[in-house]
Design a protein that fits this description.
By secondary structure, the chain is α+β, with helices and mostly antiparallel strands. The chain contains three helices and 13 strands, in the order αααβββββββββββββ.
Length: 310
């Protein structure tokens, strides 16, 4: 089995050839333009049919062939030298390379990214704000975000056809282009509509939806919230319902005893109509009140589990 260092040596050779080709094309643009302009001024026939676009089409095809060969090398090399891939594509090869680098205690220089300040249309009504971050739900700083401007538009709210807390947004990014183009990458090409995440929008896997049930804790049987099962604890002693709520009429109260834990669960797909999707991350977030007056959102947690469970 090869090391990650060996891989980068081989990959660097191919990446260098791709860069050389791009440099050649940039120089060719100037040379061909000069040639065509000179032919036109000298009234030389036929050379007027020559343009940079014609030459560029041939070089672009060569560039695409080289990039395809690079992708094929990446997948083949990772599979033959590092082990079985999760999927036989570039993404699968990079995942395998990451594992090999961890085994080799190898690192590469991180890419530094930043998020520009949001600007708002002068005609907006209200005080809505967009919070954008390059830190994912697991607390990891992203290093492969494409440079682009995202435009968010509120398309349904309580002033129109929306429901309070479930407003609909539309987000659009810059256009994407073929990965094999020498101009790649451009924008993400994202064009998505989604609703605000809201606990009341239950049992749906749609963006902004909630796959769980009764997470507003408005329904109880005894002291146990409906659609939840007790794992550890004592109803009425370590947990109960309360009328002190952020929204609605009820909330779940956990009573710390110091010597007894509390654990409630809900089986997604069994206790709920919504089901989890394979290879999909889900975020668990909630509001927490500590003591008599402190109220704050608890830190979100993410999970990649896809089986039914708490």
């Amino acid at each position: 089995m090869t090391t990650s260092s060996d891989f980068f040596d081989e990959w660097g050779l191919i990446a260098g050839k791709i860069e050389d080709l791009d440099d050649f094309l940039s120089t060719l643009r100037t040379d061909v333009t000069t040639l065509v302009d000179g032919a036109a001024s000298a009234a030389i026939p036929h050379l007027g049919d020559l343009s940079f676009e014609v030459v560029e089409a041939y070089v672009e095809k060569a560039s695409q062939s080289l990039i395809t060969a690079a992708d094929t090398f990446l997948v083949g090399y990772a599979e033959s030298e590092m082990g079985e891939l999760e999927s036989r594509d570039v993404r699968g090869a990079l995942k395998r390379l990451k594992l090999q680098m961890e085994a080799d205690s190898a690192t590469i220089e991180a890419t530094t990214l930043s998020v520009g300040a949001a600007s708002y249309d002068a005609g907006n009504t209200g005080s809505g704000r967009i919070h954008v971050s390059i830190v994912d739900v697991e607390g990891t700083t992203l290093e492969n975000v494409r440079p682009e401007t995202l435009r968010f538009e509120l398309v349904a709210d309580t002033q129109q056809t929306g429901t309070a807390g479930e407003e609909t947004w539309r987000v659009r990014g810059a256009a994407t282009i073929d990965q094999k183009s020498r101009l790649w990458p451009k924008g993400s090409g994202i064009a998505l509509e989604f609703d605000n995440a809201h606990a009341g929008k239950e049992e749906t896997s749609a963006p902004g939806g909630n796959v769980m049930k009764n997470t507003t804790f408005e329904a109880f049987t005894g002291h146990l919230p409906d659609s939840f099962d007790e794992v550890i604890g004592t109803a009425g002693t370590t947990y109960t319902e309360t009328s002190t709520a952020l929204r609605g009429a009820k909330a779940l109260r956990i009573i710390g005893k110091g010597s007894q834990l509390t654990e409630l669960k809900q089986d997604i797909g069994s206790d709920t109509a919504a089901k989890l999707k394979p290879k999909t991350k889900y975020v668990l977030s909630f509001w927490l009140r500590e003591g008599a007056s402190t109220r704050r959102p608890a830190r979100s947690r993410s999970t990649s589990r896809t089986a039914a469970g708490p």
